[in-house]
Amino acid sequence: MAEVARLFAMEEQVEHAEAVDEAxxxxxxxxxxxxxxxxxxxxxxxxxxxxxxxxxxxxxxTHYAHRGVNLVRVGRKWTFRTAADLGWLLSRESNxxxxxxxxxxxxxxxxxxxQPTTRAEIEDVRGVAIxxxxxxxxxxxxxxxxxxxxxxxxxxxxxxxxxxxxLHFGLETIGxxxxxxxxKGAGLFDGRLPAGFGVPHPKDDPELAEDEDPLDGPxxxxxxxxxxxxxxxxxxxxxxxxxxxxAGGSEEASGDAPEPREGx
Length: 264
Known about the structure:
Elements: H1 2-33, E1 38-39, H2 40-44, H3 53-63, E2 69-74, E3 77-82, H4 87-90, H5 102-114, E4 117-118, H6 119-126, H7 132-141, E5 144-150, E6 157-161, H8 163-168, H9 180-185, E7 212-213, H10 225-230, H11 234-253
Antiparallel strand pairs: 1-3, 2-3, 4-6, 5-6, 5-7
Helix pairs in contact: 1-3, 5-7
């Protein structure tokens, strides 16, 4: 009986190994054929039952680590990319695209580090107003997206970065953005910094924050609600003005009559 059990165990191991090999081939084919990065959920839907995409993707990343193409993770998705040291072989001359303006770069940096953030919050950090065209340019590049609406009067739109932003700047996660020490080491800060100065830890959670509502959510602050709750009704103000005028008239009526001039 022990020998029979051992044979069955060996057979199960062989079947499992074959299933894993097949799963590796499937994942490899999916990533090569995909026109854009794939997330683990999409990959897992194509795998044999019982095979999890996580370990297979890590094994493939190790396998391709020293090859001409590397398997890399961008955000929560995976894609093949030419090895960094071979990029020069595939480069070609082309017209240099128009660079972002300084206000656009500053706005992009603020959104990346402070997301989710609103236009007013961006202006507060920069210290100057930003034009609508600046945000439009960032939205057109695909590096910035509309996240939701702040749960506050006026329900301002909140902005955040996209996977295209990570892909363009070669980041695995938004947390890979440089911190204060790295920025100092790169010489981007000259002189002494104010006391308490710091760089926030960036995060780009796709889920809405506690103070955010969906873009198409209900209006929690309908027009006129803020004014109605801010003070007394208008009729009371008018009545108070009328009472004041009436009081002024009474004072004039109760005053002494002017003395007659000579000759009258």
